[in-house]
Design a protein that fits this description.
The protein is mainly α. It is built from twelve helices and four strands; from the N terminus they run αβαααααβαβααβααα. The chain starts with 23 loop residues before the first helix and ends with a helix.
């Protein structure tokens, strides 16, 4: 991994980061984790799906919708909390219970040991936070293949993850997982900006620091205001993904407009089903859960929306 300090990059703790507890139990489970990885498959049987996009773009709701509709593998909270024994913890938890699908979340966090997480801590074993990972960096992250394959085997289903930080890693992920699918969630900039400004304030993120994800092309840029940094975060990540995904995942990526998704969530499910069907994989629907047919997208008051539109446009124009 390339340390952020090498680029003079300031970063902030990951949202909803769960710090692992190093207990005697944890230490005792680590040999079993290594054995599970070494005796398991070296790579997944199915192409994984990576949902990416700017922070506060709606990736959590869209990701939960896919996981609520289909039987998919993912990184549960218990694995995020114990990144060094992620598979063993997951398999033990699955023997006792299953996740009851829910759309309830707070800044991307869903409550429950087996509830889906962004898997931030697991991915950070292989990728430096807030640093771009290109195709040439895939070689140093080969161990991630076994972990994804392990989750796939534990759930007996293709792997799916929603992680905004993976927006900076699409090249490396595409190199690690040939055939992988990518869903790029976009959102109206005033709506996303209002939500991101709120999150930065709530989590005490200082000007110049990043939260959740950062645009690789603007990592070393100095910002004069919060609205300027938010503007470049949102537009920068979208531009980066629109340039990279057609090149690294041609025909295997979807740009999903969040507001349109809220009006018709089935479009995401239909795309996933169709892409996996082309690969000869039939996704299993959850029998005991009916996914929502519509979501209520957050709508700003007209005055606030107009104000943010002006501020975002000015910020981008000043520093273009």
């Amino acid at each position: 991994m390339i340390p952020c300090a090498a680029y003079g990059i300031k970063r902030h703790a990951a949202p909803n980061r769960v710090m692992p507890r190093t207990s005697l139990e944890e230490l005792a489970l680590r040999p079993l984790e290594r054995w599970t990885l070494l005796t398991g498959p070296a790579q997944p049987s199915f192409p994984p799906t990576f949902m990416v996009g700017p922070p506060r773009a709606g990736t959590t709701v869209a990701g939960l919708h896919a996981l609520a509709a289909f039987e998919l593998a993912y990184v549960p909270n218990v694995s995020k909390a114990h990144k060094r024994t992620a598979l063993v913890r997951c398999m033990r938890a699955l023997r006792a219970q299953r996740w009851e699908p829910s759309y309830d979340n707070a800044y991307g966090k869903v409550e429950g040991e087996l509830a889906p997480s962004d898997g931030w801590d697991v991915f950070d074993r292989f990728f430096e936070p807030y640093t771009e990972a290109r195709a040439e960096h895939a070689a140093s992250a080969r161990g991630l293949r076994r972990i994804v394959a392990g989750f796939e085997r534990a759930f007996d289903a293709p792997f799916f993850t929603k992680n905004n930080a993976n927006s900076m890693r699409v090249e490396a992920l595409a190199a690690l997982f040939p055939g992988a699918l990518f869903v790029h969630v976009t959102r109206s900039y005033p709506e996303a900006a209002a939500s991101l400004l709120e999150a930065r304030s709530r989590f005490g993120v200082a000007l110049g620091e990043w939260w959740s994800a950062a645009p690789p092309q603007h990592l070393t840029r100095a910002f004069s205001s919060e609205i300027e940094q938010v503007a470049f975060t949102l537009r920068g990540i979208d531009e980066y993904l629109r340039e990279r995904l057609p090149r690294v995942a041609p025909g295997r990526h979807l740009e999903l407009d969040y507001e349109r998704f809220c009006e018709r969530p089935a479009q995401l499910l239909e795309w996933l089903e169709a892409r996996y069907a082309q690969l000869g994989v039939g996704l299993r629907r959850r029998a005991a859960f009916t996914p929502r047919e519509r979501f209520e997208a957050r709508r700003l008051a007209p005055e606030r929306r107009a104000q943010l539109e002006r501020e975002l446009a000015l910020a981008l124009e000043r520093r273009a």
